[in-house]
Amino acid sequence: IKEIAISRIYKLLAISAKILDWFFTIILHFPAEEVYRISSLVDIRIVLLLLQVMLFEKPHIIIVDEYYSLVPIAWIIKRLYLKPSLLVFDAHNIDTDRFIKLYPEKHLFVHIIKIIESLACKLSDLILVVSYHDMIRAYHLLKCSEKIMIVPNPADLSEIEDEITKLRDIYKGLFGNRRPIIVFHGDFRYMPNREALLIILRKIVPKVIKDFPNALFVIIGPGLPRMTSQHIVLTGYVKDLYALLSTADVAIVPLLHGGGTRIKILEYMASGVPVISTPIGSEGFMFGNFLGIIL
Question: CA nearest 261: which of 131, 97, 157?
């Protein structure tokens, strides 16, 4: 009976969370794919889950990874827990800066994000950022600097090299004698990647095939339909990503928006693929034009 009651409670909480998301997206016109950054702050299911972890796991370190709206909840539970714990906010990027550029017309949404992200920084004992650029943004926009530590994004060379060694030959013959092979990958449920895809399809593909009629663009990642045409292959998710990337002649990163650093650039380089990027795409790395990358 208790299990049935708990199950029903969680179903009601799930419905209430959906209603809240609906309110933010339909009534307040917040971007649907980003609204969870606000709504998770009042999601009772997450509060109960955090409380359960604290009671049974008794952690010495609490790490909130990207979902900074959960930092205030973690801080409250930490205080109730009455045991010294280190609260770490692992920031993949500084969203306030990203959303100011991405959604300049949505003033209320950006303002709320700034308040929540600033609060997360103030309540955290340690803030991890991935680049010097993000440290500066956190200082100017969120007014926090003394608790920041820069931990750059990595790429696992041993894992990538092992996959390429074992599987590259399988992918080598996949595209026949098509050359050059041009790749771009990412999660296409993420707006900046969808924006980059449109740039590739509408602007880059027509210009490239005019000079290289045998060129093939291979676009990889979740959120894509599987499709093949004369010059474009959309693969969707690929398990052996690095083996496929290593067959390419060049990787492109035509991003106009984003935050943090693009791990895809490290993955291209680790796979032995030259990279052409916009300045935004390579932002956060210590690259210069023709110094490891073409901008």
Answer: 131
